[in-house]
Amino acid sequence: MTHPMLQIHLNSHPTLVSHLVYGCMRIGGTREPTPIDDAQRRVAYGAIEAALEAGYTCFDHADFYRRHKSELVFGDFLREHPGVRERIFIQSKCGMRGDFFDASAEHLRNSVEGSLRRMGIERLDMLLLHRPDALIEPEEVAQAVDELVRAGKLLHFGVSNHTVPQMELLRRTLDHPIVANQLEFSLAQPALVMEGLEANLVQSGPTALATGILDYCRLHDIRVQAWSPFGGGKLLEEGHPARERIRSMAATWGVPEEAVVTAWILRHPAGIQPVVGSCTPERIHAAARGCDIALTRAQWYELLTAAIGRRLP
C-alpha cells in the first residue's frame, strides 16, 4: 500500500516528484566485481518496496554505483513488478569513470544507453552530471542532451556537485534547462546556508567565498537535492552536537529522530529534496515522517545552532 507523500513540481516544470528521493546506491550489494547474491537481492527488494510504501516516487541512480549492479537489480525489480515504472520518476547520474571524470558527448550517450538497458526502461526521466569535469566542453554536453531528448531517451537534464560558474557555463550552451543540482546538505554539512549567514564576517574569510549557490538555484528554477541528509549517519550517533536537540524534538512530537533531520531540510523554502539512501525499511519510513513535521523558524535555527556548536552572528 502506497502512503501519500507531498508531491512537488520540478520547480516551473509540470513534472511531479516526491519531496523525498530514494537513493539507490546501496541496493547493489558490495563494490566488489561479483554478482548480487540472493541475500543482497532480498535487501534491495525490501528497500525498494519500503520506499514505494512510504510514498517515494523519485528514485536516484548512477551508472557508477556498485559497478552497475544498483541499476541491474533495480531493473530486475521493475521487470518482476509490472506497473511500477509508470508511477515513478527515475533519474541517473554519469561522468564518474574510476580515476577520472568524463562529460564527453560519447560518454553521456553511452551512459544513458547503458542505464536504459540495465534497468529495462525506454527513457530516463532525468540525467545528472555526477561531478564537474575539468575538461568539459559545454557544446558536447548540449549536443548529447539534445540528441537524447529528441530520441525520446531523456526527459530532463541536471547536475550534481556543480558550482554557480560551472552551471553558468553549461546554461550558456544548453537548449534544455538545468532542472536540478544534487549537493551535500544536512545538519552535519550546513554550508549551503551558513555561507550566506557568515559572508560578511571577517573570520569567515573573503566575501567572495560565499558563492550563493542555493540562492542561485532558487533564482533559476533549479531544484536542489540534498545527498547524505543524515551526514553519513553522524547525526544519529552519540556525540554529535545536534543529537540531543534532535532526540528531544523527536520525543516531544512522537516521531523517529530521522524525521526531525529530514524535516529540517524540508523546512527550507527552496523545496530541497533529501536523498535517503538507507537500505533499512524502518529508516526509509522514518525519514518520510519528516513530511508531517512543520518546524517553526525558531526550531529550525535552534537545530542549526546546535549543529554548528555556536551562536549565529
What descriptors fit this protein?
313 residues, alpha/beta, TIM Barrel, eight-stranded parallel barrel, 12 strands, 38% helix
Structural notes for this entry:
The protein has 11 helices and 12 strands. The protein is an alpha/beta fold. It has a single domain (7-308), classed as TIM Barrel. The strands form 3 sheets. An 8-stranded parallel beta barrel has the order 3-4-5-8-9-10-11-12, surrounded by 5 helices. It has a two-stranded antiparallel ribbon with strand order 1-2. The protein has a two-stranded antiparallel ribbon with strand order 6-7. Helix 1 runs parallel beside helix 10, helix 3 runs parallel beside helix 4 (138-150) and helix 8 (243-253) crosses helix 9. It is globular and about 50 Å long. The relative contact order is 0.13.
What is the molecular shape? globular
> What percentage of residues falls in helices of 4 or more residues?
25-40%
Biggest sheet statistics:
8 strands, parallel, barrel
CATH topology label: TIM Barrel
CATH class: Alpha Beta
* Gyration radius, in Å: 19 Å
CATH superfamily: NADP-dependent oxidoreductase domain
Structural class: alpha/beta
| Rounded mean pLDDT score | 93
Low-confidence stretches: none
In which order are the strands of the major sheet placed?
Answer: 3-4-5-8-9-10-11-12
Q: Which SSEs are present, and which pair or pack?
A:
Elements: E1 7-9, E2 16-18, E3 21-23, H1 38-54, E4 58-60, H2 69-80, E5 89-94, E6 96-97, E7 100-101, H3 105-119, E8 124-129, H4 138-150, E9 154-160, H5 164-171, E10 178-184, H6 191-197, H7 213-219, E11 223-227, H8 243-253, H9 257-266, E12 273-276, H10 281-288, H11 297-308
Parallel strand pairs: 3-4, 3-12, 4-5, 5-8, 8-9, 9-10, 10-11, 11-12
Antiparallel strand pairs: 1-2, 6-7
Helix pairs in contact: 1-10, 3-4, 8-9, 9-10
